């Protein structure tokens, strides 16, 4: 999503990703099992402090959701509820893409650049499909964007 919309950040909650994909040909059927809901993508501008607050609300909820992230890294301590972003500045304005489901939970942002009714708002699985077609071969790597601590 971040690549397609050329944003600073992208997120998806872990429960939106439904199935692991086995090695081999990555078919449209596999894309749809990975992202089965067909959520449309929304692009917003928001301050770093509002982004941090949004992520923290997901993680510290009574039923916490792990947020998958692109464009930044964070450390989360579920015991102390401490969330640390080394690379997000509170007063910097970031562009963020997220699906319309998560956008519905975002209470503070500066501007909507692409809403779910915009012609450029694609379903999440279509964005993934286009990215895969562009890459041709996917070689996943561990990027350590999320660290869970217990210190």
From TrEMBL:
Entry-linked Gene3D superfamilies: 5'-Nucleotidase, C-terminal domain
Protein name: 5'-nucleotidase C-terminal domain-containing protein
Domain 5'-Nucleotidase C-terminal span(s) in chain numbering: 1-103
UniProt source species: Faecalibacter bovis
InterPro entries in the record: 5'-Nucleotdase_C (IPR008334), 5'-Nucleotdase_C_sf (IPR036907), 5_nucleotidase/apyrase (IPR006179)
């Amino acid at each position: 999503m971040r690549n397609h919309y050329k944003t600073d950040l992208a997120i998806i909650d872990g429960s939106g990703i439904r199935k692991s994909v086995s090695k081999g040909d990555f078919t449209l059927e596999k894309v749809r099992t990975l992202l089965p809901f067909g959520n449309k993508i929304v692009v917003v501008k928001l301050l770093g402090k509002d982004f941090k607050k949004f992520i923290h609300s997901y993680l510290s909820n009574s039923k916490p959701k792990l947020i998958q992230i692109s464009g930044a890294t964070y450390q989360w301590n579920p015991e102390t509820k401490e969330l640390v972003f080394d690379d997000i500045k509170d007063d910097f304005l970031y562009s963020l893409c997220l699906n319309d489901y998560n956008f519905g939970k975002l209470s503070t942002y500066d501007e909507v650049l692409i809403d779910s009714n915009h012609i450029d708002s694609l379903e999440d699985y279509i964005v993934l499909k286009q990215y895969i077609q562009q890459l041709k071969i996917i070689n996943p790597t561990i990027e350590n964007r999320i660290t869970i601590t217990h210190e």
